[in-house]
Records
---
Amino acid sequence: MGPFFECLLVVLLIHCAASYDGQYREEGDSCGDDGSWTCRKLKHCPAAKRELQTRANPLTKVCSVKRGVPIVCCPPTDASAVEDRAPPVPVKPKPSISQRMCLKYAKFVWTQRMRYGEVIDVDNCGNKEEPLIVGGKNASLKEFPHMAQIGYLFKGQQILYVCGGSLISERWVLSAAHCTEAPTFGKAQFVRLGELDTSSERDGANPIVLRIIERINHEDWNGVELYNDIALYKLEKDVRLTPHIRPICLQVNHNFTSPAGLASGWGHTKFEGVGSSMLQKVWLDVIDTSNCSKSYGIQLQIPEGIDGSKMLCTFGRGVKDTCQGDSGGPLQLPLSNPYCMYSQIGVTSFGIECASNYPGVFTRVSHYVPWIEKHVWPNEK
């Protein structure tokens, strides 16, 4: 086929009114009524070229056009494609439920307002993404909009917040199983969201308190051994998402490249003290699980040592660590895409003292994503 004729096919295809279905797709995306076809460049789809040469009204669909080159919907099997030596086009994997929800919740960092008679988008990101609880720094307003406090009813009248958590959807909070029922206070009953400084009403925060109506510990948590320390708490109603209150993303991949994770919480700033009134943040080095197991030996209820598939360990340089009251809170990584979001890699589980020579241990979120999705988004596919 000569260059002139190929150019003619391109013009014909682009201007064919029936060729575009209104859905933009990139090369490698699935297409067709049943999703079994693949978007390819026209020159790599002999079936499309043959149809353009032989039919007066071609039915070939255009996925998109890039720099004047049509990307067309190509059938799954075409022997002629081998003759043309078309390079294989990788088919993009379908995003998981958690990844789709992450993109959905990222939109709530933006609000709209009128400016000179025109509607503009306003960026409300509070994520500083700086290398940042013991030895931590004060968090900023809207920096951790997913942060939750888990509350317990004390003496039937006062709510005490002694665990942390993270909002992962409009209705669910992720925390640690050992927070579901506290020895002194009983079952977790409340969740506070949108808080920054618990001692101030002038910090710019507008916190809300909701009741917990359902508590789901992982079925393999037994309350004695420290494995599978993860829980979900269902709220009494959906939360209205805003730049101040919006969910965190879940880490779906077991491996990540960051050498450190960012912990946040209102826990004690020293072992024998009181919880911090101001939300704290601290960067902690992620360390090898085998060295973590050696540190603990048989001192805790971990008879088989640290299980790297379900747990991860951190160590704070200097006097840095999570502490009492941080339990159930997130260990997270700031994301560049989607904008102004974090990916939760761990749930604060246990340690020995605070800022000691012992690592902190977290429940590894990626291992439990299927379990989380089953309960939080049961109708999503």
---
Amino acid sequence: MAAITAAQYGTGALVTALMHPIGYAKVLIQAGYEPLPPKASVSLFGKESLVYPNVLQYMSHIKKVDGFWGLYRGVFPRVVSGTIGNIVQHNVGDKLKAWFPQAKASPEEEEGDELMSWLRSFCLETSQETVARCVGIIASHPLQVVTVRCMIQFVGRETEYEGLFSSLGAIYRNDGILGFFAGLVPRLVGEILTVWVTNFLAKLLNRYLVEDKDLRSYTAAACGLVVSHFTYPFTLVANVMAINSSGLKASSPPHMPRYESWVDCFSDLNAKGQLKRGSSLFWRYYQGPVIWRDGRMMAAPRYLN
């Protein structure tokens, strides 16, 4: 069993490392950094629009500036963070299941109060998963902060956050203990909402609509994809707050306002219509002011990075 678990963690770490360049580009986009200007295009509805280069073109730009291995800036702390989070979540989840086992309903309860039995089961399982995930996130979040700050240095060409331990030291010097948990609250809020809504929808669908037992195992994953679309703003705000006021160029005006709290950040992005920034990797529409020159639509220069 231990060997299987280790293999699973190893596979997860490998996949994370291989997909890192996409996540790297996405973090830069989430921070609002657009080094390549938008180009005129046509939307699916035939409307003339300005579209930013897709994530593959964005990655190509990173490679052009920093070379191939530059695409893997921040990969080590990201892999370590994910591995620690998964190990902690798995172990805490196992402990909770052992401490609070699912009680079997008596025949009288099954006949008389089936809905209440179903709700008790749902609440217990979801509460255990929520606690396990949150503990895993809290344990790994300092390395998540290191990861995001390592990557965002691309904007200002800084080198303060390079090695793992030196980066942890830099966070402590700049922000104190609380710096290790910058952006933690919106990340937890988004995770809790995702777990509860996903589990509720999955159990509801499996109970009343999905009869095939093989298909039921995929219901939660499908619901998770849908729900994560709606909870994405919390992921965005978490990453923005992880770098905000860190002293890095990308986290300071004029690139980014200084936010007093994550609620302030959420409100500002919402007012600007930017809460989905970075959620789409291919059709990324420019939403700022435009000018017309020689009959062509262009983005107003002062609004570009």
---
Amino acid sequence: INSVSHNDWASFTGRMPVVGLGTWKSAPGQVKQAVLAALDCGYRHIDCAAAYSNEQEVGEALACRVGPGKALRREDLFITSKLWNTKHHPEDVEEACRTSLAHLGLSFLDLYLMHWPMAFQRGKELMPRREDGSICYSDVHYRDTWAAMESLVDKGLVKAIGLSNFNARQTDDIITTARHKPVVNQVECHPYLSQTDLVSHCRSVAVCVTAYSPLGSGDRPWACPDEPSVLQDPALVAMAKRHQRTPAQLILRWNVQRGVVCIPKSVTPSRIRENLQVFDFSLSEDDMKLMETLNRNERFIIPTVENGKRVWRDAEHPHFPFNDPY
């Protein structure tokens, strides 16, 4: 599988496949079979997170295929997990990482990301709320959380650490003080949100960008009926017919050609297989330019809908990342 190497990954001995399997929104009873299907057709990169509440089932799949006498060795795989917002207190970071490792049945992670720059109140609840339904925030700064994550590298629990949903300013803020610099920033990225400025900035500071929801996350639970569908965009559909490929394959190929890692989610074996079949064709310069014209700066991963309108749940948090232009 084609891979993206990274000059700044001095402490990282592996390689990151540019197409992986995303596991967000994969329901219990489905994610194990999805991971098995992915591993069996050639995926070697699996993206996980504690907040997805399915890491134990991912671990069951890994146990079926990885280890002595089985199809794969641990060193063949690239496994990512993420630290959730309620675990930002430095004293909670290692325990959270070890919990993910236990659920996944692993002794180390290839990559561990800070899921969001925003800290929530410590505790066992994923979404600690007040009586009025608002989220209980914490004043822990992401720089302090990062310092605790660096110790995970020192202890060999993770090979590398990175960010998710950080803007350019916050990414630079981490880099300025880091002992172990972030190697990845994982963000929403698809043709309607091309993230060109953020991708360019991250490249300039030796941070690789991973695209989550690269196909537009049509199954997001808060989707409104009148919202556009990336996969049904007429220009994209026409281009796909011309290439005799699926719109999803064109999107993934577009990102691969511009050096962005993709982690499309699917639980359908045929689609899982199709999403990996993007290395036997290429897009022309004109195709790439056309893909860029689809950008609308349209974010879909907005976790609250009120009266049919998309509303940012955490916009009042002091470390909310999307008030900056990129």
---
Amino acid sequence: MAALMNEYWLISAPGDKTPQNTFEKLNHATKNGNDKLSENFKFSIPDLKVGTLDVLVGLSDDLNKIDTYTESIVRKTASTLEDVLETSSKGNLSENLRIGGDIPPQVYAQKFTWDLAKYPVKQPLRAIADVISKDVTHIEEELKTRYNKYNNLKGNLQQLERKSTGSLLTRNVADLVKKEDFVLDSEYLITLAVIVPKVLAEDWQKKYETITDKVVPRSSRVVYEDNEHQLCTVTLFRLIQDDFKNKCREHKFMVRDFVYNEEEIQAGKTELDKLNADKKKKFGPLVKWLKINFGEAFVAWMHIKALRVFVESVLRYGLPVNFQAMLVRPIKKNHKRLREVLNQLYGHLDSTALSGDKMSAMEIPGLNLTSSDYYPYVFYKITLDMLEPQRI
């Protein structure tokens, strides 16, 4: 089976007697013998209110911006879902990107039908565009709020987890020591936790008793070690602890700011458990919200595409409204040939698009196209692979 491209070309051409004839002519032209150039689908757009020329020209410019914005929210919702699911697999992500719970984006686009209940066609085009824009803005705002809360929770949890698994320089000492490692409830003595680089372990044993006076002899114990450091305890008189810390720093031994307190240790473990529980509690509802609102944003995006095709087709082909919108998915190896066939099929609609004199085409109000994207027919490129960079 020939490989299909990840992008679709949404095009429209004037009705040839009937819109159905236009679609059949495209199918016939793209067969190219036994070697197909593309898969083609009708893109059904209902009879919308045309309005005045001034309204169409102004709306064309606005729809371009709404289209770009809506696509960005579709992709942002998908990438957020990918992040929350903590997967980099295309397969795992695509399984969760569905419209209405079970329809893949490609299938929805290929079988697009206008949602008459959500966007009544009796409304002016401007009103429909405003409703879509408002809906998408609401999705973006709620996405920010929900994701920020979840991300802050996740960040706090990761910070605590790092303290339980990282280097001894940052790791939570409470996880590594026992009550019997410390002299407790003494008015005069205190036990400190000191991080000693392994390369200086002999130095520590030789020097710790005499770094300052009033250090308890033979009081140091190695209670934990990793690849690079040892965690040692040492007992000394409280009144010289500040001087002892300063002297340790000079010798490249680091005294950790830690006091053994069972209540605080238990509270730290409870906080970690609480954050883990909160993350699990919020995970399910957030994933569900992201799935639903990816679908909502995608539906909005396809309706904006439909509005753009309708407006540009009226501006290009005039009244009465008679055109067929079509979704074309190029066969990868034949996409250049497909472009040539489309130009042959529709070149008569606007000779300037093929002549190289594209500047005059650019002066048509409301089209908002660069010369590289201007063709004799209405054309928009749609990339439906949500893991690919955004293409505008």
